[in-house]
Amino acid sequence: MTDAQETAADTPLRTTGGTPPDDGGTSAAPAPTPLLEPREGIPPVITDEAALAEVIAAFAAGSGPVAVDAERASGYRYGQRAYLVQLRRDGAGTALIDPVACPDLSGLGEALSGVEWVLHAATQDLPCLREIGMVPSGLFDTELAGRLAGFPRVGLGAMVESVLGFVLEKGHSAVDWSTRPLPEPWLRYAALDVELLVDLRNSLEKELDRQGKLEWAQQEFHAIATAPPAEPRKDPWRRTSGMHKVRRRRQLAVVRELWQARDRIAQKRDVSPGKVLSDAAIVEAAIALPANVHALAALNGFGHRMGRRQLEQWQAAVDRAKALPEAGLPQPGQAVNGPPPPRAWADKDPVAAARLSAARTGVSALAERLNMPQENVITPDTVRRVCWEPPKVVDADSVEAALAGYGARPWQVSLVTPVLVDALSVKSA
């Protein structure tokens, strides 16, 4: 699990009120206990086919759900590949597998077919696991379960502490997991990440059942497990940090050329693109449109530490953008598949703006009653789409169909339909 992932998950949720799950009226829990060592010690890292075959056999013979986690090297290496895979299952213990030495884990994935996988923030790890042949047939996401149950913080450390009473060390989450050999403290941390995942899953299942939300969670988990791989993002260069400062099409072309040149270099070197050239430097060059290498070197991000050859390759990218004909320049904004930004609704369609305002108020009140984040009750994008282009006939059946068409799960459709039927009946602000 990455540092950014843990930090985001530990940020208090945007709940609209309510209280976190109670303890059934019991007295205050004792002080949490530090969890310092895996139960069976730190297992050896699996780096060859013979050892992997033994692990596959052991986990196939195990019982119950399997805890799964993966460590990436975000910020250090190109892409989001896994550099360590951790698993734990009753009867098999804990395994640490090096997917660099053993890049095909499809045999392990097949051995675990039909077994429930327990992951924390599953959507973060599933893409890199899929790359090495591991795809779950069913899963339980402890982070999402915590959100649905109304916990104020849902990072793994916070959840393990509040639910199970143990403190996990989180000091190695942001390290370079592509390092070989991996230091023992890192391996201890990695093994502990799956040590209590199944215990956490079992406690959260009971809490969700107590709140009447277990079926909702199961629908969410099924949706994650069966979701197709994400399509490659169109025009990823448009996500360069600071793009809001870039106004002219020629400047946009510079961002595109520099971003693409940086990406090629980063991929070739297998390093994070930010280590090749920062987003801030790309934006700085786009705004300045430097005439030559000397002018480029004077900009922030292209200082004295950068060699002449590097400066020349970046200036070449700038020059390519400057030489493009008008027809080859990118448009100021991406083609938007869906409604415009909400801030523009009042001018473009005041009635739609009124519908959206009413819908947001209604969803907020519903989320407060359910004690969960609004975005888990229904995605904001779905609400915007339905409010911008409502069904021709506003009734429960048509709204249910619209919500389902945008991917809402049955439990969401059932709860949100009455709210949106009322909101879509609003005629003016």
From TrEMBL:
GO terms for biological process: nucleobase-containing compound metabolic process. This is 3'-5' exonuclease. InterPro entries: 3'-5'_exonuclease_dom (IPR002562), Exo_C (IPR041605), HRDC-like_sf (IPR010997), HRDC_dom (IPR002121), HRDC_dom_sf (IPR044876), RNase_D-like (IPR051086), RNaseH-like_sf (IPR012337), RNaseH_sf (IPR036397). Transmembrane segments: none annotated. Residues 248-328 form the HRDC domain. The keyword Nuclease applies. Residues 15-26 have a biased composition (Low complexity). Keywords: Exonuclease, Hydrolase, Nuclease. CDD domains: RNaseD_exo. It holds the Pfam family HRDC. The keyword Kinase does not apply. Residues 1-41 are annotated as: Disordered. GO terms for molecular function: 3'-5' exonuclease activity; nucleic acid binding; nucleotide binding. It comes from Streptomyces brasiliensis.
